[in-house]
Amino acid sequence: MVRNQMMTALFKPMFLFVLSPDGTPYTWWVGRGSEKHFYWGGSGPGIQKCACGIDRNCTDPKYDCNCDADLRQWREDAGLLIYKEHLPVSQVAVGDTNRPSSEAKLTVGPLRCQGDNNYWNAASFTTPSSYLHFATFQGETSADISFYFKTSAPYGVFLENLGNTDFIRLELKSPKVISFSFDVGNGPVELTVHSDTPLNDDQWHRVMAERNVKQAVLQLDQTYRASQLAPAQGHTRLELFSQLYVGAAGGQRGFLGCIRALRMNGITLDLEERAKVTPGVKPGCQGHCTSFGMYCRNGGKCVEKYNGYLCDCTDTAYDGPFCTRDVGGFFEAGTLVKYNFLPEAVAGASRDSKILTHQLTPHEVNLTKEEVAFSFSTSNAPAILMYVSSKTQDYLAVVLRQNGSLQVRYNLGGLKEPFSIDVDQRNLANGQPHSINMSRVDRSITIQLDHYPPVSYTLPDASDTQFNLVKTLFLGKVYETGHIDPVFERYNTPGFVGCLSRVQFNSVAPLKSALRIVSQDTPTAGQTDRPPAAASPVSYQGKLLESNCGSSPLTIPPMSAATDPWHLDNTDAEYPFNEERVIPDGVNRDSAIIGGIIAVVIFTILCTLVFLIRYMFRHKGTYHTNEAKSTGESATESADTAIIGTDNPETIDESKKEWFI
């Protein structure tokens, strides 16, 4: 595995490697282990040069970095940092920028990882006499050897090649000593490095050995190093004729353990391919999980492979190379998943139901602790999310009530009514993804909803603590032939509609198992019949579709109970155990809202009617005149005469106006 990080520096003017008054460069970076490093991209540890300094093409030949030229123009130094032991870059210190016109711009690129098949090319030596042989090593004037090893043995020969008198050998001489010996005709030469800790700790260690006409060098884990100059006069050519033996040769103490990534003069030897046809040697190595097992997440088990490792996600609710991908399923109305812990008669089961069971031992079905985890999203309530039944009347249920609030119900015996926990009073049937993690140990129950802190609850002293004869786990709906709490009968219609994902009950992943059955039951192109699946405890009814709905982000963050003005403080409230005896909260709240709306509508209608009636009576009349009232003397006069006798004709005309409503 190769890791590198890009670093680009632009300075005007700036000093990278010019020393400050205290003797350190003005600029450096900090990597893993909080260590300062004074080399830059394109260079290496201990080399205080930039890439242009190594290539000898810097702007000013007097300096080893373009940015050290102290020019007014912008200059750039860039390159890759490839020593993974020092990565990633965590801090960069830039100095000498307080001078007039002094500017700096520094960029650190992303950390990139690349795999190398040669890095995993390995062989395991299982007996002291086992070895691999290759063609004669051609290293007359220069020999450059590197490899990794892992062993629990106190000694062993890594490799050896012989000549008439010349030879070359690398060996673990004792639990703390590595030896590099050779003879080019001037007599045997041996270099050793001593480790502070034992090397037979079954951990990976790296050995690098180099020999040329000037000197010989041996290095262990880039920590321990030994070197020796070649004699001024004498032979310099290493003359070999036998085969190269890796592991043991000539009666030497053979190596027991694993060797990988063996490179000799830049060529990687194919240990794996040769080991396939060699007795006593196996291709690949055991023990990758010691170094890399941490990458198997969410309960995934690391499995040794010859060329690496594998994360086994079988017993988890996740999938993918590292057990990090949620496995989710979409439930339509009437869909259920059933997981049988105990065998049961299949008579009466639906024809399109796939009922498969297996037998568990008694200690697996009498529980004093449970671990439950899953995510859900739905817009419908009420609904059963999970229901675990038993051969007795014990059960565990996680449900959404009529108002969408989440409730957990335990019935372990000893109480007149089940023990109910109202996890949250908010409406969680809002189409958003929510997650619940719950654990019980005896009487102690801990529940965490979404990203909020876990909350602890305690079963009453009168309650039993053992979940007896656990029989069946249901998701989405309950299809039970035995006793079932009447509270849940109305939760079954139409059942849960929405998404469930990463469902886990102790070591069981029922939804993931059901989706595997679904994929087996789905015929491929050109195939109409599929043989029945092997015996399995899981079954399903209805239409179940695998979906990545569980990985959907929360688009509307839920309101914290501490800041929610509508959140009920249930520290003093008493919630009845039997839900049948009370009208659900959602019904009361909905009735009050509907009644208020009806009252407003009726009041508005009445006000409108009153206004219309008053308007009509105010203008009601068929004919208005200004006729003179008849008296005894003028009773015989007509109405016309009376009108003519009026003094004000305008008044008369105005009074003769008529209104018709």
Automatic annotation (TrEMBL):
Keywords of this entry: Cell adhesion, Disulfide bond, EGF-like domain, Membrane, Repeat, Signal, Transmembrane, Transmembrane helix
GO annotation terms (biological process): cell adhesion
Residues in coiled coil: none
Disulfide bridge positions per record: C258-C285
Transmembrane segments: 592-613
Membrane topology: Single-pass type I membrane protein
Domain Laminin G: 121-285, 344-549
Cellular localisation: Membrane
InterPro entries: ConA-like_dom_sf (IPR013320), EGF (IPR000742), Laminin_G (IPR001791), Neurexin-like (IPR003585), Neurexin-related_CASP (IPR050372)
A GO cellular component annotation in the UniProt record: membrane
Domain EGF-like: 286-324
Signal peptide, first to last residue: 1-21
Principal place of residence: membrane
Family membership: Belongs to the neurexin family.
Protein name: Contactin-associated protein-like 2
The species this protein was found in: Eleginops maclovinus
Lineage start: Eukaryota, Metazoa, Chordata, Craniata, Vertebrata
